[in-house]
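Q: Here's a chain of 489 amino acids. Please give me its 3D structure as C-alpha cells.
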Amino acid sequence: MTELPSEDAPTDAGSQPEARPGARPQAQPGARPRVQPEVRPEDQPNARRGPQRHPKPQPGSGAQPSLHPGPGAQPKPQLGPRLQPGAEPGAEPEPEPGAEPEAGAGAEPEPHLGPAPGPYPGLGPAPNPHPGLGSALNPNPNPHPVPEPVPEPQPQPGSPPYPPSPRVEFAELLEAEFVRRWPGRSAGLDAVHRYAMVPPGKLLRPSLVLHAALTVGGELDAVLPAAVGIEGAHVGSLLHDDIIDRDTERRGRAAVHTEFGPAQAVVAGNALFFSWFAALSECRRLGVPADRVARAVAVQAEAGVAICRGAFDELAMRGDLELGIDAYVAMARAKTAVLLAAACRVGAILGGGDAPTTELLGDFGDHLGICFQIRDDVQPYDPIAARAMGKPSDSDVRNRCPTLPVLIAHRRADPESRAALRHALLDETEPALALCRIRSVLERTGALDTAHAMADDYARRARELLTRLPATAHVAHVRALALLTRPAH
C-alpha cells in the first residue's frame, strides 16, 4: 500500500505553519519531556518561559491542556468560551459578555459542517454501490464540482487557547521522543529504526491519538507512548510496503530496504509492530488504569489483523479494472482507515472517554482515512502534488493498482478510451508513459473531479460526526481534529 500524502510525505516548508517563537528546542538523548504546570508572566516576571503542557484540568476549572510560546511571542487568538467555575460537567458554558455565540463540541464547530449538499457528477443512474456515500453515484449536471473549503476557526473573546498544532508543537514533542528512544549513537536494529522514524513524516496517526485523548480530558504524558507506538506501527507497514511495491524511495530519500537491505527492513518492521503494543504497557506504568489498557490492546489487535487483510485484498485486486466502487471502499477502509480509526479509539479509551464518545471519534477516523486514501489515489495525476510525494509517483501504475480515479474513468469512458486505459495499466512497459496516458483519460472523463468530490464528501461526514460529541469535550481539540480533514494541496 502507499503512503498517505497529507501526513507522510516529506515536510514542505512552504505548506507548513511557521514555528512560533519560543518553540520547543530539540530534546537531548535521554531527556523525556514532562508536563509542567502553567507559570504566568505576572506571577514570575523574571522566569524564562518555554512551551508548557498542562496537567488534566480539574472539574469546573475550565483549563485546557495546551502548549504556550515563550516571551515575545504573539499570543494566539482564542476559539470559544471557557467553562465557568463551578459549572456542572456536561453543562453548556456561558459566553463572555458581548461575545458572539460560539460552537461547542456538541454543536457544529463550523457553519458548513454537515452532510454533503449534493451527489457526485457523471457516474450515471446506477444504484448506490456503497452505502457510506448515500446518493453518491446519482447524476449531477455540474461536471466540475468545486471542493468546499474548510474555513479557519474564528477567534472569540474569552475562549480557550488554540490547541497544539499537529504540524508544529505535537511534531516537535513526538520527534523529541523518537530521538530519546533512538538516539544518534544507535546501532544495529535501533539504527534502522532511527533511520525510519527520524525525521518523521506528517505524524497524522499519533496526532489523532493525542487530540482524541485530550478531547475527552486525558493527560498528555500518560498517552504519549501510545502515540509513539502507533507511528511505529505505521512506519513498520511502510517498510514492508516498499518491499512489496519495489519502491526505492520514501520521504524523499532511500527507502529502508534500499539503505539497509530487504531482510533487515522486514525484521525492523516486525519489531515496530510489537513496539505498538509495548507502548501500552508504558501507558499503564504512567498511571492509565489497567482496564483502559486492556480495551486499547483489543482495539489495536483487531486493527492489526484488518490492516493485513486490506493489504492482502489489495494484492488480489491488482489489474482488475472491473472492480466495483464498493469493493474499492472496503479495501481502502481496511488498508488505511482502520488504523486512523484505531488511533482515535485508543486515544479516547486511554484518556477516559465513555463508549459513545469513543465510537464517535473512531467513526471520525474511519471517514478521515477513506478521504485520505482517495486523495492519495489522485495525487500521482496532479503534476504539482506528484513532485512533493517523496516517493515514486508511478508506483500504482507500475504495480497495476486500479485506484479510484482509474476505476471511475474505466466505468465512464467510451470503448476507445477504455481500451487505451486498459493497455496503459496492464500492458505498457514504460511506467512514465503509462502514467501520462492514464492521466489523459482521467482528464477527459472527469474522473479526477469525481474522486475529489468523493474525498470531500467523506471529509464533510467526518466533520459532521464531531458535532455530535458531548458538550464536555474540549472544543479546542475538537476543532483541531476538524482541521485535519483539510486537503494538503
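Q: Can you summarize the key feature?
A: The CA atoms of residues 380 and 386 lie 5 Å apart.
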